[in-house]
Write a structure and sequence with these properties.
There is one protein chain. By secondary structure, the chain is an alpha/beta fold. It has 2 domains: about 1-85 and about 160-265, Rossmann fold (3-Layer(aba) Sandwich), CATH 3.40.50.300; about 95-160, no CATH class. The chain is about 35% helix and about 25% strand. The protein is built from 9 helices and 10 strands. The strands form 2 sheets. The chain has a 6-stranded mixed sheet, with helices on both faces. It has a 4-stranded antiparallel sheet with strand order 2-1-4-5, covered by helices on one side. Helix 3 (about 100-110) packs across helix 4 (about 115-130) and helix 4 (about 115-130) packs across helix 5 (about 145-155). The relative contact order is 0.17. The chain binds adenosine-5'-triphosphate and magnesium ion. Magnesium ion binds next to helix 1. Magnesium ion binds near residues 46 and 47.
């Protein structure tokens, strides 16, 4: 079943007399339950593309269709409602620094009007899902990067989204922590059936958990398909950090899920 369809999507940024064509005629389908990786170099248009998927960025032309609804046709209220189905996590976690962990997770629920008691119960359940029950009263500044990303994941899941968008969600983390977060994302995908779209510049991330991948170069998709079918010549990805990848493999082999272990062989 199709979850997201992108049709002839273009996005240009115009500033005085300069124009940047960040996305050029993108066509892409993400099916329900996919972990869809979009890989590309810095400036390729990855963040712009993922922000178009929830209309945080409005395309210049083309369509974004989520579960049969074209986002461009929705009014502000409908779009806000639709966005509850589309959660997002970020490279720098974006937690509220002045709120403790449990309140960070409760916050989106209270915005939705969920009763305090129910929101609290749900937040604790999610905190336990991401393995941080003992950090409920800590503040983000007291947590490691990996722990902060776990809180961000719990917060993202609070609204029972159907889709989780990940913008370089592991890029600020060391290889071991990256492997553990990828394992958690895989678990979430399987347990809750949440479709994941993740963008990254790391080939190792794509290979560890994605079933499909698209390669973005200068705003254009140059490859797209199932992971095993897509031509991903390693030497093309010269930004791949070999040293990190080796450390990642070593750790994942010993500690993480079958999928991650399969990849590292
Ligand atoms: N708000 C904006 N105004 C003007 N130009 C922008 C804006 N956002 C992005 N761009 C330009 O669009 C292009 C794509 O940027 P984007 O942030 O999508 O790349 P990216 O692939 O996410 O890069 P990175 O890996 O560094 O995060 C770049 O040339 C960038 O300068
Ligand atoms: Mg980016």
């Amino acid at each position: 079943m199709r979850e997201i369809e992108i049709k002839s999507l273009c996005k240009s940024f115009v500033d005085k007399d300069t124009k940047v064509d960040a996305l050029r005629d993108i066509n892409l389908t993400v099916d329900k339950g996919d972990i869809f990786g979009i890989i590309g170099m810095s400036g390729a248009g990855k963040s712009t593309l993922i922000r178009c998927l929830n209309y945080l960025e409005k395309p210049t032309s083309g369509q974004v269709i989520v579960e049969g609804k074209e986002l461009g046709q929705l009014n502000e209220k409908e779009l806000r409602e639709k966005r509850q189905d589309i959660a997002m996590i970020f490279q720098h976690f974006n937690l509220l620094q002045q709120k403790n962990v449990i309140d960070n997770i409760i916050f989106p629920l209270s915005l939705q009007g969920v009763k305090k008691k129910d929101a609290r119960a749900k937040a604790f359940e999610l905190l336990s899902k991401v393995g941080l029950e003992d950090k409920a009263n800590s503040y983000p500044s007291q947590l490691s990067g990996g722990q902060q990303q776990r809180v961000a994941i719990a917060r993202a899941l609070a609204a029972d989204p159907k889709i989780l968008l990940c913008d370089e969600a592991t890029s600020a983390l060391d290889p071991q922590t990256t492997a553990s977060i990828l394992s958690l994302l895989k678990e979430i995908n399987q347990e809750y059936g949440i479709t994941i779209v993740l963008i990254t510049h790391q080939m190792s991330v794509v290979k560890a958990i994605c079933n499909k991948v698209a390669v973005l170069e200068e705003g254009q998709l140059v490859e797209s398909g199932r992971l095993e079918e897509v031509n991903l010549p390693e030497d093309k990805f010269f930004w791949l950090n070999k040293e990190n990848e080796l450390k990642n493999k070593e750790f994942a082999k010993n500690n993480y899920s079958k999928e991650v272990r399969n990849y590292v062989g």
